[in-house]
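Two proteins were folded this term; both appear here.
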Amino acid sequence: MKILHFSDTHLGFNDLDIINENNINQREADFYDAFSQVVEQIKLIKPDFIIHTGDLFHRASPSNRAITFALEKFNEINALNIPFILIAGNHSTPRTNLSSPILKIFENFKNIYVSYNQEYKKIEFEDVVFHTLPHMNDENIAIEQINFCEANIDENKKNIMMMHCSVGAWYLMSEFGEWVYPSNKEYIFEKMDYVALGHWHGFGKVGKYENVYYSGSLERTSLNDKRNSKGFIVATIKDTLTIDYKEINIRAIRQKEIDCEDYETSIQALDTSDCQNAIVEVKLTNLTPLGSIDIQNKQIKELFPSALSVSIKREFKKDTTSSNIDNLEAISLEEYFLEHIKESCNDLEYERLKQKTQELFSKYEEVSYDTN
C-alpha cells in the first residue's frame, strides 16, 4: 500500500507586494506552483491513496482565485480515481459557528473525502481505515474525539491516523487556537500503521515513534522557515513502514552578511551569483548608530539587481563605552540614535546627521508592516 502524504499548502498566501506578469501576487503564484508540482507527481507515482493533513487554504475565507485554483486541481486529482482524504487545519477552520467550513465545497467529488467540523471521522476502505482528527478549537472536545478514534481501531485492517496539531513541546508554534495533542494519549500511535501530521512546516519524524511524521509545508510562509526543504512523503506500508521524502523545487531564500566594520572589503567579497529570482535576506553586522545612518537600504538592494526581493536586518555592535542615558525606556529610538551621534562627532557633523536622522525616522513611521 502506497500513500502520498502532503500538507500545509496555504493556497492564497501572499506577501511582498510584487505582482507577476499575470497580475497575480508573485508569492501567491509560488504557492500555486508548489501545489501543481505535487499534482504532477501524483500522476507519475500513482499512489493507492492521497492524504492532506490540513491548511489547504491560508485563510478560512479564501479568495475567489484560491478557491478556483483548488477546484481545478481537485478536478485533476478526482479524475485519477485515487481516493483523496483531507482534513481541516487551524487556518481553514472558522473561529465561530457562523461561518461555513470551506472544505464543504469538495464533498461532491466522487473520490474526495473531507473531515472538518472539529470532530473525528472514520473513513473506511476494503483494507484500510483512515482515522481523521481535524483541527480542534476546544481541548475537551479533542479528548472526546481522540477516544472515538481509539475505539474505532480495526485490528483486521491497516490503520492510518491523520491530525493537524502539535505533537511534542518542540513543535509548538504559538498560533491562535493551536491544538496540542495530549502526551498521555500518544500510546495510540503504537496501534497505528502510520500517523500523518500537519501544522508543523518542516518534514520530520516525531520523537521515538518510527511511524509518526510531519510532511511539512510546500512553501515558506516566513523567512524563519528558510532552513527547511519542501516536499511530500510517500509512505509504503507492507510488513514494515518505509518513508520516502520527495523534495520539490521552490523559490530560493538566500542569506547574505555584510560586515560594516570593514564595509568596503565586505561588499567586494559579496557573492550575488546565486540570487537570481531569489528572496534575499541581508544582515548588516557590527553597525554603529552613526554608520547605520550613512548606509541606506536602497544602496544595499542595488547590490542584488536580479533578486525577487531584498530584506535588510541591522545588527548593532555592542558599545564599548557606556552611554549616559539614565532611562532608556523613556526615550524614543530616534533620540537614542541622536545621543550616540552627538557623542561620536563634532557639532557641525552632528547638525548634518541630525536632520538626516529625523528624515529617516519620519519615513519609517509612515510604514506599516504585515507580520504574516
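Next, the second protein.
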Amino acid sequence: MTTYDDRAGLTDLTTAVDRVRRSVESVIEGKPEVVRLSLTVLLAEGHLLIEDVPGVGKTMLSKALARSLDCSVRRIQFTPDLLPSDITGVSIFDQQQRDFEFKPGAIFAQFVIGDEINRASPKTQSALLESMEERQVTVDGVTYELPAPFMVVATQNPVEMEGTYPLPEAQRDRFMARVSIGYPSADAELRMLGVHGGVSPLDDLQPVAHAHDVIKLIETVRQVHVAESVQRYAVELVSATRGHPDLRLGASPRATLHLLRAAKAEAALNGRDYALPDDVQALVVQVLAHRLLPTAQAQLNRRTAEQVVLEILQRTPVPTADGARAAYGSAGRAAPLYGQRPGDRRL
C-alpha cells in the first residue's frame, strides 16, 4: 500500500490559513465559502472583487481579512470627486529643499481596501491599473515599488444602483476573482444580531498571521505542481469563451494565468502539492465570469456569464489521470488519483 504525506510547508500553510479563516468567520456569519475564496485569492497573489447589494457585509469581510493579518492596511472610499493622485500620490515642491518631494497615496500599503470602487469615475479607477498588475506606481516619470505582500480587495454595488460607473474591462480583468456574499440564512442573521448587536466584533479582532508568514505561504503555493494535462484543461476552458456565440468578449490570457494560480492555491488549501482538474473546476466561475461580456441577444434571453461558463465547463472534456501519472512516475513516486487527498491509502 502507498500513502501520501503532507510536506512540512503544506502543513504549516493549512494551519496558518485555518487560524485566519476562524478569525474572519468570527465576524462574517454563515459564509464559509466566501471566506475560503478570499484566502485562496490571497495565497494566489491575486486581487478580489466583492460585488453585492448594500448592507450584506462586503466592507466587513474586507476589514476582517485585513485585521486578521499583521500587514499595513489602507482604506480608500471611492467617491465621484476622488482624484487619481489621491490613490497613487503626488509630488509637492519643498521650498526649503528646493526640490519636489513625493507624498505616497493610499495605494502604498500591503492590504488596500477599495470601498465602493464603482462610485468613482473611470479616470480615477484607472489609477489602480499599474499597481494591481505590476505592483508598482509611476508618478512624474519615477517608479515606486509597492510593499509585499500586496492585495487589493474592492467592493462594488451592482451597476443598476444609482450613482455607479461600470468598471472598465481592463480593470475587471486585473481582479483574479469576483464573489457575491448574498443574504445570510435566518439562523446566521439571528447569530449576527447577538454578535453585532452590542459592539462591533472588529474591535476585538487581533492579527493571527504576520506579513512574512503570508510571503512564505505564497512561496509554498508557487511550488505546487501542475501537470501538463491540467494546464491544457485550463487553456481549453478559457479558449472556449473566446468563440462562444453568447459572448462578445471572452477571457484573456491573463485569465488563464489567474485560473492556474488559483487552482494551485486551492490544491494547497486541500493539503496537496499537486493540482487536479477538480481545483480548476472549483474556481472557474469565480475567476472567469466577471471578465466576460454577453452579447445583446444573450442579455435579451437573460443569459448570464455564469451560465455560459457552466455550460463550457460541462462541454469541455476532463483530462484523465494518465498524464499526471506519467509526470509523477518520472519523479520517482506514484501518481495521485484524481480526487484523492494526501494520507489516503491507495489499494
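Residues 8-25 form the longest helix (18 residues). Confidence is low (pLDDT under 50) at residues 1-8, 328-347. These notes refer to the second protein only.
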